[in-house]
Amino acid sequence: MLKIKDLHAGLEGKDILQGINLEVKAGEVHAIMGPNGSGKSTLASVVAGKEEYEVSRGYITFENEDISELDPEERAHKGIFLSFQYPVEIPGVSVTNFIKTAINETRKSKKMDDMPASEMLKMIKEKADMLEIDRKFLSRSLNEGFSGGEKKRNEIFQMAMLEPKLAILDETDSGLDIDALKIVANGVNKLKSGDNAVIVITHYQRLLDYIVPDFVHVLMNGRIVKSGTKELAYELEEKGYDWIKEELV
């Protein structure tokens, strides 16, 4: 589904990613861990197509198509979803209107008609119930005055509604208490299928107790320096990252 080969990318002519190689297949959950400043959020941003980042070498293919030159909205229409670490507030645009627009823009890109209103309302109700979201929440302005937990739950609600092929969750667990974490993780688990894939970027092993990864990758200095199963996440929790740094010397 996603193949990243020798990816070098960064900001203002300075590479943050120093040769990333990663393959993600349909049905898989990959966790990316690493110390602050290692390039985790940069990797998420580059895959999603954030325009301030420049790719200096390597390529990214999604479903066997090179997407390196595509705009963020084109990548989104193809099924790539990025859940932000710090979701933006948009006053005056309700959660419901935002999601309706996003869905219908994606349909338009595939030369489909807008989703019928009755179908949209039914889907909104189902997904809101699944994520334990109060219906009043959906009429509020997007992220305005939301708590950290509400913002993250809203991101997962968007993911549920858009049904992406590849969901990248960038530190979705930051700032969440344990109850909010369980609800968010439960939503992600319900949305997992053999046809989609999830990349979870996290500092903490605790999220991986609830969203169990097939693979764990450690990112350091812009490279994936170690990969393993979920046991690797427990090892990192227990020992930190210094032992991996020592291995690399």
UniProtKB/TrEMBL annotation:
The protein depicted here goes by the name Cysteine desulfurase
Domain ABC transporter residue range list: 2-246
| Family membership | Belongs to the ABC transporter superfamily. Ycf16 family.
What keywords are assigned to this protein? ATP-binding, Nucleotide-binding
Membrane-crossing segments per the record: none
Origin organism lineage: Bacteria, Pseudomonadati, Bacteroidota, Flavobacteriia, Flavobacteriales
Q: Which GO terms describe its molecular function?
A: ATP binding; ATP hydrolysis activity
Naturally occurring in which organism (per UniProt): Aequorivita aquimaris
Pfam families recorded? ABC_tran
* SUPFAM superfamilies for this protein: P-loop containing nucleoside triphosphate hydrolases
